Amino acid sequence: MTDPTLLKRITVRPEVFGGKPIIRDMRISVELILSLLAQGVTPEAILDDYPDLEPDDIRACIAYAHAVIARDTLDAVVVAAP
C-alpha cells in the first residue's frame, strides 16, 4: 500500500511536460528523479542540485513508481485542470 501523504506531493498538469507527473507543481518531473536515482545519483546529490526539493519529494517519486508497478490507487495524486 502506498502512502497517500507522499503521493499528494505529485501533481499532473496536462500543460506541463505533456501531463507527466511532476513534483509539487514544480517543473521537476518524477521521471527525472527516478532516472537520476537509477543512474546511481544519491538523494543527497539530487537535493544539492535541486535546492527546492525536499527529501519527501524523492520518497514521493519512489512511492509513485511503486504505486504504478503494484497497481495501487493513485487517487492521492493531484490532477490539475488545464
- Anisotropy-based shape: globular
H and E string: HEEHHHE
Percent in helix: 40-55%
* Major beta sheet summary: 3 strands, mixed
In spatial order, strands of the major sheet run 2-1-3
Name of the CATH superfamily: Winged helix-like DNA-binding domain superfamily/Winged helix DNA-binding domain
Q: How many domain modules? A: 1
**What's the helix count?**
4
* Backbone CA Rg: 12 Å
Alpha-carbon distance between the two ends: 29 Å
Corresponding CATH architecture:
Orthogonal Bundle
**Strands, count:** 3
**Proportion of residues in extended strands:** 5-15%
The CATH class label is Mainly Alpha
Instruction: List low-confidence stretches.
Output: none
Helix/strand-derived class?
mainly alpha
Instruction: Give the mean pLDDT.
Output: 88
Q: What is the CATH fold-level name?
A: Arc Repressor Mutant, subunit A
State the gist of this model.
With 82 residues, this protein is mainly alpha-helical.
Question: Any overview of this molecule?
Answer:
With 82 residues, the protein is mostly helical. It has a single domain (4-79), classed as Arc Repressor Mutant, subunit A (Orthogonal Bundle). The protein has four helices and three strands; from the N terminus they run αββαααβ. Strands 2-1-3 form a three-stranded mixed β-sheet. The longest helix has 16 residues, at 55-70. The model has no long low-confidence stretch (mean pLDDT 88).
Which features does this protein show?
4 helices, mainly alpha, Arc Repressor Mutant, subunit A, 10% strand, 82 residues
